[in-house]
Amino acid sequence: MLSPKEAERELSIGAQLNPGPWIKHSMSVGLNAKLIADKIDMLDSNQAYAMGLLHDIGRREGIKSIMHTIDGYDYLMSLNQYEIARICLTHSYPIQDVNTFFGKFDCTEKQKIFLSCFIRDTLYDDYDRLIQLCDAISLPNGACIMEKRLIDVALRHGLPEFTIDKWKAFLELKEYFDRLCNCNIYTLLPNVIENSYESLL
Q1: Where is the HD/PDEase domain (predicted)?
Q2: Tell me, which fold does domain 4-197 have in CATH?
Q3: Sequence ranges of the domains in the chain
Q4: Mean pLDDT, 10 residues at a time, over the chain (201 residues)?
């Protein structure tokens, strides 16, 4: 597993290859994952941080939709980082169905079949769930209430028919981690209220 410093270096390289808001979003996901994992004995906060930092590392390859998950997986597999490579694929799927992706399928049919089987057959652990949660509460400027982030995604990608089911799955993740932390996770994260006031337009 990459150390926090190594993960930060990889994100910095990605930022040089394809600058954009995904960098600060990834930093936000990493920090929020670390802060939540700190409260859960069975999770390693450094591992959670590295996974959060690099969940979108496929965006180093340019502006893409579903291909950013596959590009990230392929890149991290080339570094023999299976645990983080897996997160690149699972972070978008609280529902284990490839057809619940918000965005375009800019991949080949062969790649879609691979991704569909991977998502369907993977037994999620709490790292998969944690990065899914943090992806759903992290704007580039930091943590926000989940509903704010869900609207942010909807404004960019519309409201496909699976939207309500996916929103419910994300809200269930929030409740799950509230129970694991024995508190509302928002109390663990800095500036949630302030960030939630920011306009999405």
Answers
A1: 18-85
A2: Hypothetical protein af1432 (1.10.3210)
A3: 4-197
A4: 98 98 98 98 98 98 97 98 98 97 95 98 98 96 94 89 96 98 98 89 77
